[in-house]
Amino acid sequence: MKPFTKEENSWVFYDWANSAYSIIVSTAVFPLFYKAAATNAGVTPANSTAYLGYTIAIATFILAMLGPILGTIADYQGFKKRFFIFFFGLGVTFTGLLAFIPSDQWLLLLIGYTLAAVGSAGANVFYDAFLVDITTEKRMDRISSRGYSLGYIGSTIPFIISIAIILLAQTEMIPLSTTMASQMAFIITAVWWGVFTIPMLKNVHQRYYIERESKPIVTSFKRLGKTIKEIRHYRALFLFLLAYFFYIDGVGTIITMSTAFGTDLGISSTNLLIILFVTQVVAAPFAIFYGRLSERFTGKTMLYVGIVIYMIVCIYAFFLNSTLDFWILAMLVATSQGGIQALSRSYFAKLIPKERSNEFFGFYNIFGKFASIMGPLLVGVTTQLTGNSTSGVFSLIVLFIVGILILIRVPEQKNDLVAAVKNTSV
Question: How is the protein disposed in the membrane (predicted)?
Answer without folding.
Answer: Multi-pass membrane protein
